[in-house]
Structures
1.
Amino acid sequence: MRAWLLALAACTASPRPSLVTTAETSQYLRTGTYDEALRLCHDFARAYPHVACDEIGRTVEDRPLVALRIGTRGPVIYIQAGIHAGEIEGKDAGFAFLRDLLDGKVAAGALDAVRIVFVPVMNPDGHERVSPNNRPNQRGPEAMGFRTNAARLNLNRDYVKADAPETQAVLRVLAADDPVLLVDLHTTDGAKFEQDISVNTAPVAPRGDQLAATAAALSTQLVQRLTELGHLPVGFYPSFIKDDDPTSGFAVSEAPPRFAHFYMGARSRLGVLVETHSWRTYRERAASTYHALQAIVEQATRDAAAWQRVEHDAEVADLALRGTSVPMVWDNGPHTRPLAFRGYAYTKQPSDISGADWIVYDETKPQLWNVPREGYIIDGGFAPVVAAVLDRHGIQHEPIRGRVAVEAFRVQHVTYPPMFEGHARVELQGAWAPETRELDRGAIRVPIDQPHVRLIVQLLDPALPDSLAQWGLFDTVFERKEYMESYVTEAVAREMLAKDPALRATFDAALAADPALAKDPARRLEWFYRRHPAWDERQDLLPVYRR
Ligand SMILES: [Zn+2]
């Protein structure tokens, strides 16, 4: 009896594990190690009911990636911090906010309305590459992690190609939990100004459903709530159009889905990028991040169910895009509107700047993309590498064989911009045209009548900036693999001219039209080789067809 009472006392009195961060105990001078983040994740799970700490993957250096899962009902709000590991207040503010949320001190009623999934550090390997000098444009903490993962990939350019195991882990969470909103927590780089935080909702450009309008409303609501909470927020990313020229103003535009929050738009979901101002102290940035999370979770408590309906309607509308044209890329238009932006005086034009009216570009010029009626086909040899990426996004595909009438994309001109994120990216000129193809063994079909239509087009239409073609996954297509010796071509050209009298006129016209061709013996011979059956017809043919 007595032993039983003692056991009960020991059980009920067992102190809650410390859920306090190094940031808090150091008055926000320092941030903790990744081991501390792992310990906190597991301690939260021990301290509260309906909280779990899950390993969602492993990093390049084989560290566990963890997600804290909170709550049992309602749609999921997914929050990630430390994707750029030097911008780390999202981790510390996230733990502080979630502790207060679970203790009932903030955002009352939230856990009756939404579940929360929090990845405290999306880039743990970068987090552990610690130096006081990793963020030269940032005030505190005393030392911080590095921007990229261990393979030197910027994870916030990786959401479409999904090279990194860290990104792949997060994509699995997004596919499994299907959050209504992704929140990505950062610190700005660049310019000095008074505003202390920016919220950037996505999608931005109008798209024929209610998603962009819902994102714009969320932006307005967050800016208003952050103002009430004592901040100076802006609803766009505060980087100047010309880097060192504050009078150039700001551009607001739809970016490619390689960025986490725009990726959500491609999935017909909502995203928000939060950027605190890097010249604020670590304590101030943690406070503004805490309040951003508070504002987001308060709004989600009211609106998450409505967001879910808008997203469902958007997905239904996406299915009707089959065989139509849809805007996928936007440029800023000429229209501007004045904006009161509180910059600091700067040396070039000190009198003009402080408190002046600034400019934000807000009109977008859409470029139209054709969505295929049935879907895309990836021909044999390239199917495995494409299927691997499709699988990371949860996109369905199936084997296809036989002879098919398709549109194929033959590339006329390729240029290679500088290396980017470890890829020899390519810029392509070419066009879709009807062809009949005998498919190779292993070819796959990607039907368009499935969720994530916009993401499928972003991945597979070679003219889009995050397409696998432009990320260089098909580069061998542009390489010459077989040759005709020049003495052979000399003979072959003569045979061809003898057989086809019209060919002489075509050749002469080509020489007249292109003086460089006329002067280049190798290209003159290639002109005939390209018209001969020995020419490799797969050179410059993208292995992605549509129909
Ligand atoms: Zn960042």
Note: The pocket of zinc ion is lined by residues 84, 87, 186 (CB under 6 Å).
2.
Amino acid sequence: MAEGIAVDTHVLRLSSRLGLAQSEVASKVEEQLMVLVPRDRWIRTTDLLIFHGRKTCGARQPACGHCPIFTLCRFEGRHVLAHRVG
Ligand code: SF4
């Protein structure tokens, strides 16, 4: 059983953009995610956020136009980025 949720740079960024946590501090984000997510899904949640951060929601150029969770996202710039050409 997991002892916590690993919060790396991808998890930190995605947690903020998706509105899952409200902090810039990894330990605070972990605490908020641990309340939100059932314990048996902590490892899977970390894996999914990292995967999505690597494949779609990059730090500099998130691919909002191709994002499968666009409607769940709380990132303010997502609508502009979804219509960006190039
Ligand atoms: S809509 Fe954009 S900012 Fe939101 S999760 Fe998807 S890629 Fe990231």
Note: Helices lie at 9-17, 26-36, 42-55, 78-82.
